[in-house]
Amino acid sequence: MNTSPLNLPLEVLQQFRIIYGTMRQYFRAIEQCCGVPGSQMWILQEVERTPAIGVNELARRLGIHQSTCSQLVEKLVTQGYLEKQ
């Protein structure tokens, strides 16, 4: 594709929208299939990989703030998907 420098930002934005839309569809499909939001499923996957992982490391791996991660973990604990030690 021959892209002029002036069109590059718009093309990058369009590609980002495609990626973002695809991820939204994926996370919706995960929730419909499993009954757990995609973000929580991602936490469960990371905990399965590293069972003794702490909230700080978990937040780092997911690229989210520690307090957000704590809230998601608490929801999973309340629902019986995780145990805190």
How would you concisely characterize the structure shown here?
The chain is an all-alpha fold and 85 residues long. The protein contains four helices and no strands.
The number of helical runs is 4
Report the count of strand segments.
0
Question: What is the helix content?
Answer: over 70%
| Radius of gyration, in angstroms, nearest whole number | 17 Å
Strand content: under 5%
| Class inferred from helices and paired strands | mainly alpha
Mean pLDDT: 92
Low-confidence stretches: none
What gap, in angstroms, lies between the N and C termini? 54 Å
| Inertia-based shape | elongated
Main beta-sheet strand count, sense and barrel state = none
Name the helix and strand elements from N-terminus to C-terminus, one letter apiece.
HHHH
What does the model show?
- The chain is built from four helices and no strands.
- It has 85 residues and is mainly α.
- The protein starts with 7 loop residues before the first helix and ends in a 7-residue tail after the last helix.
- The model has no long low-confidence stretch (mean pLDDT 92).
How are the elements arranged and paired?
Layout: H1 8-34, H2 38-49, H3 55-62, H4 66-78
Keywords, separated by commas or semicolons:
85 residues, mainly alpha, 4 helices, 71% helix, elongated
